C-alpha cells in the first residue's frame, strides 16, 4: 500500500493530465462523429430533395390553346380595290340602280335576243363612260369605288329618246339618279334611262325606238360628269352592258 501511495504521490499529476487528455480525446472523437453524422444526414436529405425535384413529370398533353392576340399585318390599300358586296351602293338610305349590286355581264348570245320591230335600236349619243361589269371604278362625285352598272352618253340635244321599243313599266324620282324611266322590251330586258326631267311618257304606255322619253336633267350621283344620260339594261336581276345589247 505504501508503494502504491508513493507511486500515486509521485505520478498522480501525470495520471490526472493523462486522464484529462484521454477525456478530451474521447470528447473530440464523439464531437467529430456527431459532426460527420450531421453532415451525412444533411447530405442525404439534400440528395433526397433533389431526387424528388428531378422526379417531377411535365404534362405530356398537347396544349391546343391558340394565341388570339397576335397582331395581324394590315394589307396596304391598292390603287383599285377588289370587288365588294352590294353594300358599296348604300348611300343616304336611297336605293340606287347602279354601283351596288353585283354586275353580271350577259353572254354574247344575248345581243341577238328580242331584236324585232318593237326593239329596234336607236342611237343614244356618244359613249363617255362604259359599263364596268364586276370591276370597281372611282366615282368622283361620291368619292368611293363602285361598279358602274350602266353606260353614260353625251347627247347632242337636250331630248332623251328610247333606244329600243317596248312598254313603259316604271317612272320614279331617285335620290341618286334623278328622274328614271323604265322601258321593258319584248325580250324581257328592262332599260333604265336615268337623269331625266320633263318626262313625256306615262306608265304602261307603248314606245318605239326613237320615241321621246323626256329631257336631260341632273344625276346627283354623277354630278361632276356634267349633264349626260346614264343608261342601264337589266334582265332577271342581272346588269347587262347596254353597248352589247
Q: Could you walk me through the main structural features you see in this protein, from its secondary elements to its overall organization?
A:
This protein has one helix and twelve strands. The chain has 245 residues and is α+β, with helices and mostly antiparallel strands. Strands 1, 4, 5, 6, 7, 8, 9, 10, 11 and 12 form a ten-stranded antiparallel beta sheet that branches. Strands 2-3 form a two-stranded antiparallel ribbon. A hairpin with a 4-residue loop joins strand 2 (136-139) and strand 3. It is rod-shaped, with a radius of gyration of 51 Å. 26% of the residues are buried. Mean pLDDT is 76; it is low at 74-80 and 82-120.
Percentage of residues in strands: 15-25%
Order of helix and strand elements from N to C terminus: HEEEEEEEEEEEE
Write down how many β-strands occur, each being a DSSP E stretch of 2 or more residues.
12
Profile the largest sheet: 10 strands, antiparallel
- Which stretches are low in confidence, meaning pLDDT under 50 for 5 or more residues running? 74-80, 82-120
N/C terminus separation: 155 Å
User: Taking all residues together, what is the mean pLDDT?
Assistant: 76
Shape: rod-shaped
Class from secondary-structure proportions: alpha+beta
Write the layout of secondary structure elements.
Blueprint lengths: L1 H53 L71 E4 L6 E4 L4 E4 L3 E4 L4 E3 L4 E9 L3 E7 L5 E8 L8 E2 L4 E5 L12 E7 L2 E3 L5
Antiparallel strand pairs: 1-4, 2-3, 4-11, 5-10, 6-7, 6-9, 7-8, 8-10, 8-11, 11-12
Amino acid at each position: 500500500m505504501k508503494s502504491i501511495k508513493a507511486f500515486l504521490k509521485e505520478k498522480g499529476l501525470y495520471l490526472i493530465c493523462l486522464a484529462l487528455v484521454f477525456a478530451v480525446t474521447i470528447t473530440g472523437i464523439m464531437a467529430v462523429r456527431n459532426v460527420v453524422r450531421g453532415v451525412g444526414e444533411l447530405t442525404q436529405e439534400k440528395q433526397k430533395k433533389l431526387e424528388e425535384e428531378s422526379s417531377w413529370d411535365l404534362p405530356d398533353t398537347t396544349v391546343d390553346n391558340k394565341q388570339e392576340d397576335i397582331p395581324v399585318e394590315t394589307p396596304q390599300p391598292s390603287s383599285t380595290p377588289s370587288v365588294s358586296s352590294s353594300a358599296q351602293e348604300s348611300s343616304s338610305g336611297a336605293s340606287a340602280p347602279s354601283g351596288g349590286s353585283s354586275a353580271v355581264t350577259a353572254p354574247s348570245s344575248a345581243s341577238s335576243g328580242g331584236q324585232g320591230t318593237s326593239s329596234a335600236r336607236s342611237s343614244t349619243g356618244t359613249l363617255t363612260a362604259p359599263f364596268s361589269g364586276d370591276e370597281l371604278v372611282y366615282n368622283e362625285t361620291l368619292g368611293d369605288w363602285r361598279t358602274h352598272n350602266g353606260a353614260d352618253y353625251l347627247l347632242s340635244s337636250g331630248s332623251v329618246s328610247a333606244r329600243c321599243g317596248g312598254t313603259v313599266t316604271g317612272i320614279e324620282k331617285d335620290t341618286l339618279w334623278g328622274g328614271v324611266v323604265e322601258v321593258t322590251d319584248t325580250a324581257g330586258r328592262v332599260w333604265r334611262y336615268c337623269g331625266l326631267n320633263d318626262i313625256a311618257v306615262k306608265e304602261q304606255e307603248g314606245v318605239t325606238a326613237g320615241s321621246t322619253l323626256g329631257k336631260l336633267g341632273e344625276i346627283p350621283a354623277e354630278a361632276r360628269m356634267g349633264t349626260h344620260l346614264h343608261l342601264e339594261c337589266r334582265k332577271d336581276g342581272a346588269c347587262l352592258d347596254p353597248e352589247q345589247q
